[in-house]
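Run log, item B.
One chain of 305 residues. Sequence copied directly from the ordering sheet:
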Amino acid sequence: TPQGDKNRHSGPSRHPGMSALFMANNRNKRSVVLDLKSPEGIETLMQLVETADVFIHTVRASAAERLGFSYAAVAARNPRIVYAYAAGYNQAGVKKDRPVYDDVIQAESGLVGLIRDTYGQAQYVPTAVIDKSSGQMLAGAIAMALYSREKTGEGQEVYIPMYENAVSWLMVEHLWNGVFDPPQGPLGYTRMLSANRKPFQTTDGHIAICAITDDQWRRLFIALERPEWAEDARFRHLPERNRHFDELYRLVGERLRTRSTREWCAALDAADVPNGAVNTLQGVYEDAYLHDTGFLVHYDHRSEA
């Protein structure tokens, strides 16, 4: 709306309409206000389209068509345009016009159900994981469409349905028994569904450990000073571990509670076993590594500094 993005008012701010969330999401962007319900607004939009490489919108396709900036309308002004949008659902399906947000897709895709069935409580992932993964998928589709245009000279329409996108990456591992017809059992990757697959408690915090290969597990057992576990028939090889992950994680967890996070990180680093201390957002923000690599950079905003 002419009053601006609703996120201008989400979170802390020093001045009205300049919230932290708005500034974080709109770095380096320029904007123009157009009334797309007026002929003048649509014509101005089409003038911008004529010199653009990519056109992206985030409204439902039916609304875009009703307002006059469907793919057909935009391509008529610029046949080389790459026209892109993220939809809630496949536009060939009956759900194509349903309104959705990240939380809805987390629920419908099975993600919330995985959390509930594993940990006993239905809850959302505490970040807009579907929005962001769909945006990244759309960026890849746009890049491929631009490459295609370089080869053919023709633009095209691309879109990412949030629901199908979420299901596609959940089913990479969780299709599991459903790969077969008929299914060999319930869906879900057993290792990831273990309630004991979680950060391990130490004497002063928590640590994440991810051993995958047989060799990594052997080195982990040595670092834990339990080399005999490597000879346990339940844990020796991946197929056996897949059947006994609950017990394996329980034993590892009991051992890790005997020393500090720093001590275990040092021992696991020496053994070349993937690990990391559980951090806080503040800890990440203050991470010297991220500052040294230039990932975190401070800028002075012209009105908000």
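Observations after the first pass:
- The CA atoms of residues 90 and 156 lie 17 Å apart.
- Strands lie at 54-57, 82-87, 156-161, 200-201, 206-209, 275-277.
Flagged for discussion on Thursday.
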